[in-house]
Amino acid sequence: MGGPFPMITNIFALLGIQYGPLMNQLGILYFMAKDTFYFSHDYNARNDSKIKRLISKHGMLGYGLWWAIVEDLYNNTNVLPTDYECISFDLRTDVNTIKSIINDFDLFVIEGETFGSTSIQKRLEERNSKSVKARESVLKRWNKDKTDTNVLPTNNGSNTIKEKKGKESKEKDNKDLYVDFSYLNLYQQNIKMLKVDYEKLCIEHTQQVSDTAIKILSDYKIEKGYKNKNDYLTILKWGIEAANKKLNKPNKPNQPLDKIQKAILVNQEYKEQFKQNYDARNQ
User: Fold this and answer.
1) What pLDDT, on the 0 to 100 scale, is given for residue 123?
2) Residue (of 231, 251, 244) closest to 186 by Cα position
3) Buried b (16+ CB within 10 A) or exposed e, 183-221
4) Which one, of 74, 82, 66, lies nearest residue 36 by Cα?
5) What are the sequence ranges of the domains in the chain?
6) Which residue stretches of the chain have pLDDT < 50?
7) Does the N terminus or the C terminus of the chain have fewer Cβ atoms within 10 A?
8) What's residue 238's pLDDT?
9) For the range 196-204, what are the long-range contacts, defined as Cβ-Cβ under 8 Å and sequence gap of 24 or more?
10) How far apart are the first and last CA of the chain?
């Protein structure tokens, strides 16, 4: 059994799931990127007392499901909605087992309608800190090399002006792609969303629900220090549902999602987020 993601392959083997057909059925896109993200798998994870209690109740099936949930958290900046039914369908197991794994062994931290892991958060912060330090080191070395290099001063002034104009033009073009949410009177202008994505939200969920979801996410970022990569995907995951609850509206009137549709939606969001991250790193 192979594939570009050997850890996922091993977990599916533990669960008794055929890897290839499942990937084809859900339409998951493989990216054989040289700089694919990974996280450390502690060789002594099974010796943790919490994991021992997990295995004692759910066996190695529960252990494999726990690792699958950990992978999903790493893929989503350590925040997932507590949609037990959708998670159970995605991992091909029953809802009660997923509820137990997330709630009964002190392995995850639940905040409102989302959950995450303190150990994952710590490792993500350490990785980000190392990335910042590495970037600062490169910039420092680059600036030193520029200082030590003898460059002819011809046309330096005109080149600087051209570069400045080009940068300002690019920033203006990028600004035109995004929605200006100043009309919502947010405490902070901390929501970034493409106009095309905002139009899709309004068409699918009405402008009232979409604007309410944007306000909820903006306030949540300020109050909890919440950080995410894509405001549009975050609003799709739990912002719309929170807005409908606040407005006392059904989550998706006249369009109930069955389990398969939910799994497809989650899969599409993962692919879109992965592609955006991949494109951003290769620009």
Assistant:
1) 85
2) 231
3) eeebeeeebebeeebbeebeeebbeebbbbbbbbbbebb
4) 74
5) 6-117, 181-252
6) 1-4, 22-35, 152, 253-254
7) C
8) 92
9) 197/232, 198/232, 201/232, 201/235, 201/240
10) 34
